[in-house]
Amino acid sequence: MTNPTDLTKQPDDSSSSPQTPSGSINVNPTLTNQLISINASAQAPIKLTPFNYQIWYTQWYSLLIGYDFLNFVEQDRKTEATGNSFLFRQDQFIRSALIASLSPKVAPFVVGDKTSYDVWQSLSKMYAKPLQSRIMSLREQLLTITKGSLTISEYLQKAKSISFQLETAGVSVSAAEFALSIFRGLPSDYKEITAALRARDNVVSFDELNEKLTDVETQLNRDSNVVTNQ
């Protein structure tokens, strides 16, 4: 990877008007004598929340590699950048784009970070390590979820929400794993339908699971009403 500070000939600041790419990938700005402004909303549309660091990191990591900007966020070059107006200005464009891709709940934590390196490292410290404990907690929630007094629709949506949070954290939840979690949390009234669905050769989809379980729920409610009215 080319290091901007290793170039012996620095670009002329007077000709370094920022370029804002719409979708194409450019090379290192020090090789083109142009400042590059990243369009965060178009190129990194997933905003960072307290729960999706892995997917946010993945989109930015690829983007930074594509622009040859990874060294800005992985190496602390405050002294070098301060003495080089072009590098400092490019770093501020990257910093601005990073902050623009943060949710309102996350952005306040990096307002004091002066460089893209500072922002990147602060976010890593806050979310990269805690992510593992968060993943373990979500996995446990999915394994122990129960229907209780929830309707089938509410129960499935709750499980789907947990599954989605795992997905955004970079953990894939298979259809089989999801279905088994649902089966485990159902009361004995659903024993027959769960046994039938387990015995199938193919894994039941979410839509079919919702349909089959809702049918049983409807029948159970009818039976309950009949008994009540007798």
What characteristics describe this protein?
disordered N terminus; mainly alpha; 12 helices; 230 residues; 2 domains
Q: Uncertain segments of ≥5 residues (pLDDT<50)?
A: 1-15, 21-27
**Count of the separate structural domains:** 2
Q: Name the helix and strand elements from N-terminus to C-terminus, one letter apiece.
A: HHHHHHHHHHHH
Shape: elongated
Oligomeric nature of the chains: single chain
Give the tally of β-strands. Answer: 0
- In terms of structural class, how would the helical and strand content be classed? mainly alpha
Rg calc: 26 Å
Mean pLDDT value: 83
The end-to-end distance, rounded to whole angstroms, is 80 Å
How helical, in percent, are the residues?
55-70%
Count of helical stretches? 12
Largest sheet: none
Strand content: under 5%
In short:
About 60% of the residues lie in helices and about 0% in strands.
Describe the structure.
The termini are far apart. The protein is 58% helix and 0% strand. Helix 6 runs parallel beside helix 7 and helix 8 (130-144) runs antiparallel to helix 9. The protein is built from twelve helices and no strands. The protein has two domains: 41-133, no CATH class; 145-221. It has 230 residues and is mainly α.
